[in-house]
Amino acid sequence: MRGTPIKSGEFEGWHTWEGEPFEHDLVGPFAFSVDEQGPVCAFRAERRHMNGGGVMHGGCLMTFADFALFGIAHEHLGDDVYGLTVAFSSEFLDGPKEGEYIEARGDVLRAGGSLIFVRGIVTAEGRPCLSFSGTIKKARKDKMVLKK
Amino acid sequence: MRGTPIKSGEFEGWHTWEGEPFEHDLVGPFAFSVDEQGPVCAFRAERRHMNGGGVMHGGCLMTFADFALFGIAHEHLGDDVYGLTVAFSSEFLDGPKEGEYIEARGDVLRAGGSLIFVRGIVTAEGRPCLSFSGTIKKARKDKMVLKK
Amino acid sequence: MRGTPIKSGEFEGWHTWEGEPFEHDLVGPFAFSVDEQGPVCAFRAERRHMNGGGVMHGGCLMTFADFALFGIAHEHLGDDVYGLTVAFSSEFLDGPKEGEYIEARGDVLRAGGSLIFVRGIVTAEGRPCLSFSGTIKKARKDKMVLKK
Amino acid sequence: MRGTPIKSGEFEGWHTWEGEPFEHDLVGPFAFSVDEQGPVCAFRAERRHMNGGGVMHGGCLMTFADFALFGIAHEHLGDDVYGLTVAFSSEFLDGPKEGEYIEARGDVLRAGGSLIFVRGIVTAEGRPCLSFSGTIKKARKDKMVLKK
To answer: pTM for this structure?
Structure first.
């Protein structure tokens, strides 16, 4: 499993991705693991993740879902292949509240030679909050110029 | 025009929305104005908005686009009507870099009795980076229970 | 269960919706039923559904998926409530071929006071071909003017 | 310009694509041209394109939009490069009626080495009815096995 082990707190033993200024340092950290049901991503909702209405901001939900795309697809990405999100769509079902346990799970619907199709759901204490689909383009790490 | 005027810096005279822990305090602040071309939203890309590959994180782009949905639709929302994003889709065209001027503009495609349809583009120094579409559901501020 | 029973052929005993010039008369008919796994929609791929490359046209897949949105959500629609698709997104995973059995299944992710959120997958002989999500707006049949 | 010239009727002098059982023979034909504003796709709404409510079926709108994706992107596709739609999203703004002139126009937002991003709007007598975005994957015609 890639990433760095989390050494303390609620997600001790899970993994995270360091070196990510926005995702890990500013908004997260988010946690990743694999259990008997497959890949799982999670974090705890804090006050800083909320909007003015007292529920989680849509941008926070989508940032976490974008992280989850790569967690769900982790078996298809690796040391010499990384991924770029090229398309993302979502529906907002409900609003997570401060203090709730936020989790994302999903499926790789197709992993082809160049594109990976993923869908998933973000839940708050088990309550569906965001349905998302994403298309990841695979790229070789030895190619310095990114071409979509 | 709604929001609070920005009193100094690059976006002096533009407006922002305070009381938003995620959007304003953590990720932003983002700025909003209306010029001769219509509503415009902007911010300056900083290191904290980047991903591990040195370009803006997709979640940051989508957070800003979600803000921009409401800026673009501001004439249809007001003191007693607020909005909830119910669906959002996007395509990632290019990656903004640290230090670049990030701007979003777009159009209200339809504003009906209950739903507002918006589309727009986020640019970095004029370069298209994110194409987005969103559906906003209107809600009355005097109704305490949100029903999608 | 709404709709008209199909009286012969491969889908005898399933239901369809008549009075639909495009969906039923031109492209379909499509069949609907409910089994132990829930709502199921199906049809048999014919030559007329194909594109120039010999696989099913994307427009045919999306037409069937739009039909399936309402099949999946049928419990939330009824005699005095009908639905309008307001947003639809999809990813194309594989191409169904002539003669294959095409099926759609899915879930209602949320059924609120005015909006129903549905997602599903179209398969060809069990092979995932289209992932789709849709947002349905409920409308009352006694209101003659449609307002989105 | 690719395609076959239309020799009579309302769209005389425009082009169409033959050899398309679903798009051309069953649902269309649809017409394509390039004028001073760029690529334009059009057809005349007939009774067979309608749904049970008397407006154009969403599947018909999306079939036409899928056709339009390739019309809008035609300069990036050619004799040895064809395209596959890999992702498509849309919002339904209004319902075209029988007899109306249906047109689609749009923009190529990015044409990269492997992916083309397109967005557009379908109008009926100038009235916006469908907003759509699509991602096309380029493929070489000399490769017989399609890999997404």
So the answer is: 0.94
